[in-house]
Amino acid sequence: MASRHQDGSAGDANYGVIGTNYATYRQPDPHIAKFIRAALGDARSVLNVGAGAGSYEPIDRAVTAVEPSASMRAQRPAHLPVAIDAAAEKLPFADASFDACMATFTVHQWSDLAAGLAEMRRVTRGPVLILTGDPDQLDRFWLVDYAPEVIAVEVRRYPQIAIINEALGGNAEVISVPIPLNCTDGFGEAYYGRPEHLLEPGARLANSAWSFVDASIGDRFVADLGRDLKDGTWDAKYGHLRSQPEFEGSLKLVVGRGRSLAG
């Protein structure tokens, strides 16, 4: 496993730098949460890997959270369990310890995807849930017109869905998750119909891809999008998105099925 950043971040993104106000912009979205709850089924004990500030952790089940970044652990609300300082590639649990395991918006940051997924499968009796972006569908988002460098970073970082499926046993269910117009979880595509929000530095900082491009890319993006919003260019091409209830973007829920929880 690669060396960790100063705050403990174990992947390629340093949340000691970019995660200060993460929870302000990245609140769990109820629509997306429904897909996760359904996939968890009747699991009673759930492990959340790369748990961050606790988005999508069910409060009606016994949840164990692991998160390597101290900055992110500090942002977890008081009603959620304290997260354990651990990384996906080396989970400190015995085999088959949990009914289900989940990882949301995190696998693209891991230093060793195969090891992390193998660990999730090892410690889980039932389903393993991975909420992630499909790199082959990222160009559906209008950001590709304004900051193609950011999209290119995401394409490079997000693992292919087929690779995740294979690592989980080859029989995973891949569920497309439509993104609602007023999505409260501020990943990039969440702003498909609210472009003004991405002019906010904090909104971009809460999307780790922006930390992998030169600051000049962000400056250019703000100037170009700001101009096009002011003169109507953006709305002429994409204005229909402002009232489109959902966006079929790259968001996928990959569910690897395990043994039955019965008995």
TrEMBL record:
<dbReference type="GO" id="GO:0032259">
    <property type="term" value="P:methylation"/>
</dbReference>
<dbReference type="InterPro" id="IPR013216">
    <property type="entry name" value="Methyltransf_11"/>
</dbReference>
<dbReference type="InterPro" id="IPR029063">
    <property type="entry name" value="SAM-dependent_MTases_sf"/>
</dbReference>
<keyword id="KW-0808">Transferase</keyword>
<feature type="domain" description="Methyltransferase type 11">
    <location>
        <begin position="47"/>
        <end position="125"/>
    </location>
</feature>
<dbReference type="GO" id="GO:0008168">
    <property type="term" value="F:methyltransferase activity"/>
</dbReference>
<dbReference type="Pfam" id="PF08241">
    <property type="entry name" value="Methyltransf_11"/>
</dbReference>
<keyword id="KW-0489">Methyltransferase</keyword>
<protein>
    <submittedName>
        <fullName>Class I SAM-dependent methyltransferase</fullName>
    </submittedName>
</protein>
